[in-house]
Amino acid sequence: MATSTDSNEKKIKMLYGVIGALAVLLIIMAVLLSRQKTEYVELVSEHTSLTVERNDLEAELQEMLTQYDALTVDNEELSAEIIQQKEEIASLMEKVSKLDKDDKNLRWEISKLKKEAGTLRSIMKGYLYTIDSLNQQNKQLTNENVTLSTNLTTVTTQKNQLQTTVADQEGLIKTGSVIPAMNMMANGLRVKSSGKQEETNRASRSEMVRACCTLGENRISKSGAKVLYMRIISPEGVVLEDSNSPNATFNYEGVTGKYSSRRDFQYENKPQDLCVFYTVGEELSTGQYIVELYESGALIGKTSFDLR
How far is CA 294 from CA 66, 188, 299, in A? Predict the structure, then answer.
């Protein structure tokens, strides 16, 4: 009997051992399954996120193409540049469509393509700004032409008045009616994508040149409409030409020469602050630039600035 009891106890202990081992195995399997489930969920989430990013990128590129297609451009050079940009966008869209969802470097590839799309977007904003400016100028010129055509008599009268005013100004210059320009300064300007102007001393970044001064009081000078001419002399000794009127000239100090920019203003025989702007046509060279202001054929102010 004792032997039979011992045998049963051993069997029970073995059974408990087997049950314990199975329980441990089940726990291990449960932990492994939980980890696999978590990894699977993370993988699905990552894949979904990358799919959304890729779709958003495709939509952004398609929107850029749509915006370009809606543009109306008469300038041949600008039109050719826009066509090139559209080709680059189409090429980038093809790269996006060929992305492999199982590629281990998919996130890096999408990030790289998004940067390229961002660059193309910035370029497009520049074109939109340029085209809008051209359209505004064309609209203004059209309105001016309509006004001139319908008011020919008025224009003729204004022309005669202007000629009389010029003759009077020449007489006043001889009697010392020159308007002095005080506190004159000049510098280079960079135009940001927002349209805001920012001072710069870098030749490669200078898109405009600005000259500002305070016109002093001169009660001898005749009040009314006047013209301020600006001459910008490069480090090479060449006068920068007006990009809108490259062959335009004016008379000063008994000679005829080119000017860089001009500004019409009203003079009331009292001090007033005034700035003249020049739009850069080609990249400026480094060195010192001399800026001169003329009014009624006389030099009224002179300064300089350096670009590096």
Answer: 48, 20, 4
